[in-house]
Amino acid sequence: AYGDRRAVLNLAVTLALRNLDPQIAIELVRVDYIGTTGVVVKSFLAEPRGLKAMAAETFVIRESDRTGGASPGFLVEWESREPVIPPLVEGVMVNGAYNQGMAFVTSARVLWDKP
Q: What is the pTM of this model?
């Protein structure tokens, strides 16, 4: 919600993942869209997916999709068989309603490292 009238402005979200390692592929294990209540709303991967060196992958939530609620997020899990540069994970939120443009970017936080 924003403004004095607490108007709701839905945003389209693009989750962008880029493998920053110039030589080693990584594997995306899980990309989940998590709703405001903490429940998985959508799982983007039915099985792990490889991401080549320097390659990128995007996942989109449409502006009209309200299933995540007012403050959703993503949970991304990736792995590699050898040490790599960690991937860049960013969310880009955009809305162009009412002859105005609104956009912002947020970056990921590491929640845990696997041994």
A: 0.85
